[in-house]
Amino acid sequence: MGMKTRRALITGGSRGIGAAIVEKFSRENIDVIAPRKDELDLRSNSSIDAFLDSLNCPIDIIVNNAGINVLAAGTELSEGDLRDVLQINLVAPLWLTKKLAPQMIDRGFGRVVNISSIFSLVSKRLRASYSASKAGLNGLTRTLAVEMAPFNVLVNAVAPGYVDTELTRQNNSPKELQTICSTIPIGRLAKTAEIAEVVFFLCSDKNTYLTGQVIVVDGGFTCL
């Protein structure tokens, strides 16, 4: 199932879900480009332009994984935090795709996967900017899928639920994690490798018809 001739750009690939995606793709003989924050600053479209201009190779796959979550009520959210969340979670994925998709269209192959969240579909307190950005990302995914489907460029989103990452364990006590797991029908957090497997399939040559979808990987959490 490997794709030896493909090259993928993966943002936010240094930890958590992103690191698992990088590991999976590398294991499948995909040439991975996973820039560090000092190489690609997603807060700035000009930084994105400069980074892409420095590449001298075609990109077949984009995985827009990088994101931030500023916890604040909608009535208390600062303008700066709102701007940063929307830029990194929504505008940057659009800008990267805008810049790289034309070459995919020219070659007649491309795969784009945007990492969304269950909080684009349901929400909870203090997720005003995060939920808005991820819901916007879902809408962007559908629109780009429609626009690029005739050229064999397939665009999908993956919406993970609660995932067992370092950040999840930092932000939740063992008791809180136990409570979270009790609300998930499968009864546990997702493993990062499980999310990576879904992302890989969507980006692979095996996916020939699935586009414009938001694939929820949450152990049944949003079914309740």
List keywords for this structure.
single chain, 224 residues, alpha/beta, Rossmann fold, 7 helices, 6 strands
Brief account:
The chain is an alpha/beta fold. 44% of the residues lie in helices and 13% in strands. It is globular.
Molecular structure report:
There is one protein chain. The chain is an alpha/beta fold. The protein has a single domain, classed as NAD(P)-binding Rossmann-like Domain (Rossmann fold, 3-Layer(aba) Sandwich). Helix content is 44%, strand content 13%. The protein has a six-stranded parallel beta sheet with strand order 2-1-3-4-5-6, sandwiched between helices. Strand 3 (61-64), helix 3 (79-107) and strand 4 form a beta-alpha-beta unit. It is globular and about 50 Å long. The N and C termini lie far apart (35 Å).
Spell out the blueprint of helices and strands:
Elements: E1 7-10, H1 16-27, E2 31-33, H2 45-54, E3 61-64, H3 79-107, E4 110-115, H4 128-148, E5 153-160, H5 166-171, H6 174-182, H7 192-203, E6 214-217
Parallel strand pairs: 1-2, 1-3, 3-4, 4-5, 5-6
Helix pairs in contact: 1-7, 2-3, 3-4
Please give the CATH architecture: 3-Layer(aba) Sandwich
How many strands, what sense, and barrel or not for the largest sheet? 6 strands, parallel
Could you state the CATH homologous superfamily? NAD(P)-binding Rossmann-like Domain
Query: How many individual β-strands?
Result: 6
CATH topology term: Rossmann fold
Calculate the mean pLDDT score and round it.
96
Contiguous helical run count:
7
Q: What is the terminal separation in angstroms?
A: 35 Å
Helix content: 40-55%
Rounded Rg: 17 Å
| Helix/sheet category | alpha/beta
Order of helices and strands: EHEHEHEHEHHHE
Q: Largest sheet, order of strands side by side?
A: 2-1-3-4-5-6
Uncertain parts? none
- Fraction in beta strands: 5-15%
Number of domains: 1
Approximate shape: globular
CATH C-level class: Alpha Beta
